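job 3f2a | input accepted
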Amino acid sequence: GEEGILFITDEVQTGWGRTGEHFWGYQAHGITPDLLTFAKGLGNGLAIAGVVGRRELIDSINA
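job 3f2a | predicted structure (63 res):
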């Protein structure tokens, strides 16, 4: 990020429109995370989760 730190937001509680104002909780604060994690709303009870992030960060991870 611009401050030289990695900013990660976990949207399990605030994502998928749960706040009523934005689809993702971080959008209410005018910031964009480097990585975003989400789970419960995606799987509807099934064990599944997701991670999205800035391209240069994701591309640097060896799978």
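job 3f2a | Residues 1-8+35-63 form one domain.
job 3f2a | closed
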